[in-house]
Amino acid sequence: MSDQDRSPPGSDWGLESESTPQGSADQLTRFMFDTFPVRGHYVHLDASWRALIAHQEYPPLIREVLAEAMAATALLVATLKFDGVLTLQMQGDGPMHLLVVQGTAKQSLRGVARYTREPGSSDLRELLGHGQMTVTLENADRSSRYQGVVPLVGARIAECLEEYFRRSEQLPSRLWLSATPTSVAGLLLQRLPVGSSASSDDDLNELAEADDDWKRVVMLAQTVNAQELLELSPAHLLHRLFNEEVLRVYESVPVFFQCVCSRDRVANILRSLGPVEVQSILDEQGQVEVRCEFCSRAFSFDAVDALAVCAPASSVLGTAGPQ
């Protein structure tokens, strides 16, 4: 890493444009405090958020929560070193009974929300009712799977995820999220472990110093407002909040909307239904149409294609049986 990646107090921080540049708004930026055991991530989503909701009609309050969940998922993925899929899911018995956002190690995102009636509040305890938040991490080859579950402890997603980090990662974390109908942004701070043990005086002093540093960083971050979070470029935002600190800012990475649905995946669903169920759908509708819940893309199978998908391999290949 070159010296230009470090931002000492009083430097110009490489500031060129105060607002997020057009065409590069969908990005995630990682940073570290050189003198504090604290790391951070900032994400801003613009085109990717609009692509996610392009084919969905959501009430404004549900759209706001889904936007925050999308930014939160990007921040969650950024804290991990893995090749797979992270799924943030919230479900309950309220007006919005299900919300799912998935993110990959490449920072591709997709998401969907399901509701039975228009809510009167974006407070999660009213929006979801009695429910929970689940974070699932699955390797790309599906060889391992981790799942953490936390109750809906607060009104906002940020509060629930702070509780998730406290329970599962045991890392003190603070999260700020803000959304509009066209964009969403988020800031995540995490205190990193210090000291080899709590048994020596040196370690105890280091822990006490780290506590003070963490409180200072959080105090500075708490001065951010929604407009700044949404409109300032990463460089300007970090300068606005931490201009007296020495930061190591890493190159931003793109974040984008991408759905993994495909005709092959839908064919596998039809195989799992079996020929009897598929024939029942054909008798009723004349064809089988499956629409992706994430992107609304429709996949249609006529009678020939649908039954061919469900047929045994030997039938499809025309393999003769024993003579």
Short descriptors:
323 residues; alpha+beta; Hsp33 domain; CBS domain Like; 2 domains; six-stranded mixed sheet; 11 helices
Draw up the topology in text:
Elements: E1 6-7, E2 27-33, E3 38-45, H1 47-52, H2 60-78, E4 84-92, E5 96-104, E6 108-115, H3 124-127, E7 131-139, E8 145-151, H4 157-169, E9 173-179, E10 184-191, H5 201-221, H6 226-231, H7 234-242, E11 247-249, E12 253-254, E13 256-257, H8 263-273, H9 275-285, E14 288-291, E15 298-301, H10 303-310, H11 313-317
Parallel strand pairs: 6-13
Antiparallel strand pairs: 1-11, 2-3, 2-11, 2-12, 3-10, 4-5, 4-7, 5-6, 7-8, 9-10, 14-15
In short:
The chain has helices spanning 47-52, 60-78, 124-127, 157-169, 201-221, 226-231, 234-242, 263-273, 275-285, 303-310, 313-317; strands spanning 6-7, 27-33, 38-45, 84-92, 96-104, 108-115, 131-139, 145-151, 173-179, 184-191, 247-249, 253-254, 256-257, 288-291, 298-301. It is an alpha+beta fold and 323 residues long.
Model description:
This protein is α+β, with helices and mostly antiparallel strands. It folds into 2 domains: about 5-255, 3-Layer(bab) Sandwich (Hsp33 domain), CATH 3.55.30.10; about 265-315, HSP33 redox switch-like (CBS domain Like, Alpha-Beta Complex), CATH 3.90.1280. It is about 35% helix and about 30% strand. The protein has helices spanning about 45-50, 60-80, 125, 155-170, 200-220, 225-230, 235-240, 265-275, 275-285, 305-310, 315; strands at about 5, 25-35, 40-45, 85-90, 95-105, 110-115, 130-140, 145-150, 175-180, 185-190, 245-250, 255, 255, 290, 300. The strands form 3 sheets. Strands 1, 2, 3, 9, 10, 11 and 12 form a 7-stranded antiparallel beta sheet that branches. A 6-stranded mixed beta sheet has the order 8-7-4-5-6-13. Strand 5 and strand 6 (about 110-115) form a beta hairpin. Helix 9 (about 275-285) runs antiparallel to helix 10 (about 305-310). It is elongated. The relative contact order is 0.16. Residues about 1-25 and about 315-323 have low confidence and may be disordered.
